[in-house]
Amino acid sequence: MESQQILKLDIREDGVAIIEIHRPEARNALNLALRQALSETFRQLNHDASVRAIVLTGGEKVFAAGADIKDFATASTAQMYLRHTEQYWQSIIDCTKPIIAAVNGYALGGGCELAMHADMIIAGRSAQFGQPEVKLGLMPGAGGTQRLLRAIGKFQTMLLVLTGKFIGAEEAKQMGLVSEVVEDANTIEHAVELAKTIAGFSPIAVQQIKEVTNLGQDMSLQAALSLERKAFQILFDTKDQKEGVNAFFEKRPARYQGE
Ligand code: CAA
Hints:
Mean pLDDT: 96
Shape: globular
CATH class of the largest domain: Alpha Beta
Largest sheet: 6 strands, mixed
Number of helices: 13
Strand content: 5-15%
CATH superfamily of the largest domain: 2-enoyl-CoA Hydratase, Chain A, domain 1
Helix content: 40-55%
CATH topology of the largest domain: 2-enoyl-CoA Hydratase, Chain A, domain 1
Radius of gyration: 19 Å
Number of strands: 9
CATH architecture of the largest domain: Alpha-Beta Complex
Number of domains: 2
Low-confidence stretches: none
Bound molecules: acetoacetyl-coenzyme A
Distance between the termini: 36 Å
Strand order of the largest sheet: 1-2-3-4-6-9
């Protein structure tokens, strides 16, 4: 199956799944097959109870250089519309497990948009981010304007989407687009360590935190605080919450069962 060649998947015993995009000859550009494979893989991992956290990477050299330009070079409006590529992104959006993007090298256009679908972005020191669609007579079409706006604000977003300029990892971190910057050689390892830590926590608490944080971005503060309070209260009906508190008092590591 083509998805096995262009996507590598490693589901580890510790609850961490690592997805690696592997199309080095095209700088991991997201062609249709890759989008389908990513979508299927996220759907699969979301249904696999053994998976507690997901690391998404393009490997050591490049995260993804954007949508595959060959896929749309001569496309018409009708053809682009009928592809309904939003369906492929949706299974990443619907993923209830935390996603950590481990970015080395370029994360451009659809690649930057893909990274922004994650819940954390760990960047290697030489990573480069950008939304260069304007240079192609285009604009971002998978959340580039809107996710950037929410992450880094209007004036930094306009700088990136209107000029197409690339920014390095440190600058991206200062803007609020990157969670942490590490040495290139440690990017994936560090993202996996973070995922492993999260995988050790109660999956119910972790998934509630992810859901409330993401939903809250687009709600009024009042409604978001109410949602947070309800989610917080719901956790008191879980065995994991009792286990966490008991383990604290018994001075031992908690063993969360996801119940
Ligand atoms: N689509 C298709 N092929 C791509 C690609 C892309 N986005 N990016 C790179 N490639 C291909 C190149 O065509 C080249 O193929 P050949 O060897 O067959 O010529 C190969 O990958 C290597 O590329 P370069 O020789 O250019 O490698 P480089 O290291 O010198 O430069 C780069 C790397 C800066 C990423 C440069 O390739 C580049 O600018 N790529 C395009 C980036 C871009 O414009 N991305 C936005 C795409 S539009 C989009 O994403 C729309 C959306 O939001 C939905």
